[in-house]
């Protein structure tokens, strides 16, 4: 067997810790209340179309997308809208949220609840994109970019390959892995639909080599479908980054500030493909997703199918309760996820996992002085200079940071992982990106 | 005489004269007439180059002051009225004296009053912390205590108290340049009138949450009950977004509101101790310490 493919520059390999890989997806019981945030995607915030006291059904539209780069929000439960007041999110800042008191489980009649595989591909390409947009599907890997935007190829550009991100390079997380094992046929049909919608003949599913069962399962299924192939990849973080994955699979490099379509690629997460299948074939909006709940001291690390808006504390309870020695609860993976300020925070479309860290692993340790060993530079998959960003950010030289292309940073955290001095590189970069982003917005506003 | 020496001296002298004439002509042609008063005004300014006036250093201020149509609207917070009078005298005019101001910290949530609910584990910078999360307490509005204000102060007038983890302003050293005000990501610091004998009253809280939520997060939070606004004889207090604010232009420092506040969120400073009868005042003093 030839050497496995991967991206060339940078990257790190943290311990994989896939504790919940062999635990089948369980359906979580409905909570008493759900808290559905309005902003669950990158782009314009949607506008609420329900009022306090309204009775809603599962799948009913709660908020209408606020522009092209935006997404609809649907109710994940049936019940009564209790409030539209802002509620603190994982950072402690308040965001507009729709609170619904759950009553029964009554779905909209238009949703097909049968589990039969619907292989009917007789849907027009525009209709596929339209149904996906209506269902409010966003990238489920964590970046939450609205899917219909990806599928709308800009004029003058042409896509020639669809890449499926089934890498799951984050340690601990196993939700995509389980989706591949349990929903293979649906994914294949979903891929046929997506290929039809953007008019490509070829699909590559990129899977890291630490999931041999998923590679074998999907390779076998793909034999029956034209144009779909599975590409095993060497395990390296952050291979699930869009640009890294395109580089690993096609060898093409997305230019700075550009989108994958510039090199003829469209990248979708494997969980999103399942959601797209359900949206097009079963008319089911995106109101539930698979979430991994894991941690070394957790009684039973699990994969749950969860309704959007379920408090994370409910998930932890279902996985055996919070271990007494928990130092940190992370929403997302341990590399890119964000530490939560409270477990009352709800699951959103982008919540791929909940990781509980013991207190011994929760803190960063005392930072030492940077000696410019350049390990961060070697680790950066995008060829940036993290130590320089940290210094510029400390000195408030944000214009210089922009010239050094800080906005290309995807915040993968490889630099901080590699830093022997434990300098908070990524935090300084995030601060710089905030400031540079504000600078760019004010400049655009002036134009 | 050796001709080499003679020629050398003559050629050098000749070159010197020619170049001197060129320089003289060029200097006259490209002469910049600068108002001599700019130098004079700069001389009476403190020379701190702090930028508190909004201009790039003292020279920038002096230049703008001399060229301004309405110099009385400009003010050097560091030099204060004394420097402004001297500068105005150079311009041959008089300037109305401004009331001195001082930086005021509007948060009293020490760890004893405001329990920590999270651990911040990154570089000590308020700006950085505020970009990552709302704060390590249940109050998303209060002081983060990481000291951005004290790092930007050029006068050493503000420092974080190690027990309360809140900034303390040294009134003697504070020049009201406003550097800390713009450095604070939570807008906790405000420039307020210093008041007669330094006596002033202010609401030391910015929590816009509803009363119960605010109270749960912090023992000395303003709960927006409005009792202070009712008792104020000068209509100086407004309650907006569940938090009271005292307008220092209207406040006469009568201190009626201080005793009325149920949580002790209103602070009085530099007043002589009250008579023992007023028991509320002692609780306020405790809250301050």
Produce the secondary structure layout.
The complex is a heterodimer of chains A (447) and B (289).
Chain A (H helix, E strand, L loop, with lengths): L24 E3 L5 E5 L9 E2 L6 E2 L4 E4 L8 E2 L4 E5 L2 E3 L5 E9 L22 H10 L12 H5 L9 E5 L9 H8 L1 H15 L4 E6 L3 H11 L5 E6 L8 H9 L14 E5 H12 L6 E8 L6 E6 L4 H7 L7 E6 L6 E2 L13 E6 L16 H5 L6 H9 L3 H6 L10 H5 L6 H22 L1
Helix pairs in contact in A: 1-4, 3-5, 4-7, 10-13
Chain B lengths: L2 H27 L6 H9 L12 H11 L12 H11 L10 E5 L20 H7 L15 H5 L5 E3 L6 E3 L9 H5 L5 E5 L6 E4 L7 H7 L9 H5 L5 E4 L2 E4 L9 H5 L5 E4 L9 H10 L1
Antiparallel strand pairs in B: 1-4, 2-3, 5-8, 6-7
Helix pairs in contact in B: 2-3, 2-4
Q: Summarize this, please?
A:
The complex is a heterodimer of chains A (447) and B (289). By secondary structure, chain A is α/β, with parallel strands linked by helices.
Task: Find the structural class of chain A using helix and strand composition.
Answer: alpha/beta
**What global shape of chain B is seen?**
elongated
Specify the CATH class of the largest domain in chain B: Alpha Beta
Measured on Cα atoms, how large is the radius of gyration of chain A?
A: 21 Å
Order of helices and strands of chain B: HHHHEHHEEHEEHHEEHEH
Major sheet details of chain A: 6 strands, mixed
What is the CATH-assigned architecture of the largest domain in chain A?
3-Layer(aba) Sandwich
Helix content of chain B: 25-40%
Contiguous low-pLDDT stretches of chain B (5 residues minimum) are: none
How would you write the strand order of the largest sheet of chain A? Answer: 1-15-14-18-16-17
């Amino acid at each position: 067997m030839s050497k496995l493919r991967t991206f060339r520059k940078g990257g790190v390999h943290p311990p994989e810790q896939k504790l919940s890989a062999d635990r089948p997806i369980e359906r979580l019981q409905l909570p008493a209340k759900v808290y559905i945030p309005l902003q669950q995607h990158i782009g314009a915030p949607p506008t609420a179309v329900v009022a306090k006291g309204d009775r809603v059904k599962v799948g009913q539209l709660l908020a209408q997308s606020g522009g092209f780069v935006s997404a609809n929000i649907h109710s994940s439960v049936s019940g009564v809208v209790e409030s539209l007041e802002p509620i603190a999110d994982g950072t402690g800042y308040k965001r507009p949220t729709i609170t619904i008191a759950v009553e029964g489980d009554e779905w909209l009649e238009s949703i097909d609840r049968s589990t039969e595989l619907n292989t009917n591909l007789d849907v027009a390409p525009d209709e596929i994109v339209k149904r996906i947009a209506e269902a409010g599907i966003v990238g489920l890997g964590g970046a939450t970019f609205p899917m219909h935007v990806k599928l709308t190829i800009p004029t003058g550009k042409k896509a020639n390959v669809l890449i499926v991100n089934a890498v799951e390079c984050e340690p601990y997380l196993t939700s995509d892995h389980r989706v591949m094992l349990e929903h293979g046929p649906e994914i294949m049909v979903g891929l046929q639909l997506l290929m039809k919608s953007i008019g490509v003949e070829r699909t590559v599913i990129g899977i890291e080599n630490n999931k041999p069962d998923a590679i074998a399962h999907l390779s076998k299924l793909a034999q029956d479908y034209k144009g779909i192939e599975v590409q095993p990849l060497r395990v390296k973080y952050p291979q699930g980054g869009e640009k890294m994955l395109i580089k690993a699979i096609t060898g093409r490099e997305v230019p700075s500030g550009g989108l994958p379509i510039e090199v003829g690629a469209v990248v979708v997460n494997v969980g999103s493909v399942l959601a797209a299948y359900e949206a097009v074939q079963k008319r089911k909006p995106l109101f539930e997703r698979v979430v991994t709940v894991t941690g070394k001291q957790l009684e039973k690390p699990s994969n749950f199918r969860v309704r959007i808006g379920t408090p994370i504390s409910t998930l932890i309870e279902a996985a055996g309760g919070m271990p007494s020695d928990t130092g940190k609860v992370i929403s997302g993976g341990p590399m890119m996820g964000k530490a939560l300020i409270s477990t009352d925070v709800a699951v959103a479309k982008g919540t791929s996992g909940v990781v509980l860290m013991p207190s011994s692993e929760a803190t960063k340790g005392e930072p030492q002085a940077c000696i410019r060993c350049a390990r961060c530079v070697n680790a950066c998959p995008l060829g940036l200079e993290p130590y320089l960003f940290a210094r510029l950010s400390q000195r408030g030289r944000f214009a210089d940071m922009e010239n050094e292309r800080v906005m290309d940073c995807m915040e993968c955290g490889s630099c901080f992982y590699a830093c022997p001095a434990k300098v908070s590189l990524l935090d300084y970069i995030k601060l710089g990106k905030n400031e540079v982003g504000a600078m760019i917005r004010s400049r655009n506003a002036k134009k | 005489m050796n001709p080499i020496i003679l020629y050398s001296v003559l050629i050098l002298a000749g070159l010197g004269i020619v170049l001197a004439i060129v320089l003289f002509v060029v200097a006259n042609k490209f002469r910049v007439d600068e108002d001599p008063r700019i130098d004079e005004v700069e001389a009476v300014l403190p020379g701190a180059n702090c930028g508190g006036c909004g201009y790039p250093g003292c020279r920038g201020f002096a230049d703008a002051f001399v060229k301004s149509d309405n110099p009385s609207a400009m003010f050097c917070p560091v030099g204060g009225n004394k420097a402004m009078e001297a500068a105005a005298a150079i311009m041959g005019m008089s300037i109305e004296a401004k009331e001195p101001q001082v930086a005021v910290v509007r948060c009293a949530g020490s760890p004893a009053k405001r329990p920590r609910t999270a651990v911040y584990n990154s570089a000590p910078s308020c700006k950085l912390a505020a970009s990552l999360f709302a704060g390590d307490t249940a109050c998303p509005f209060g002081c983060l205590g990481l000291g951005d204000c004290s790092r930007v102060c050029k006068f050493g007038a503000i420092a974080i108290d190690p027990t309360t983890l809140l900034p303390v302003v040294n009134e003697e050293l504070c020049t009201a340049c406003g550097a800390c005000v713009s450095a604070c990501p939570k807008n906790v610091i405000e420039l307020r009138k210093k008041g007669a004998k330094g006596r002033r009253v202010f609401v030391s809280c910015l929590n816009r949450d509803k009363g119960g939520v605010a109270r749960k997060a912090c023992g000395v939070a303003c709960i927006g009950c409005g009792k202070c606004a009712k008792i104020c004889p000068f209509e100086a207090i407004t309650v907006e977004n569940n938090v009271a604010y005292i307008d220092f232009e209207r406040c006469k420092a009568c201190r009626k509101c201080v005793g009325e506040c149920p949580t002790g969120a209103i602070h009085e400073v530099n007043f002589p101790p009250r008579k023992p009868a007023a028991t509320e005042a002692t609780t306020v003093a405790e809250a301050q310490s």
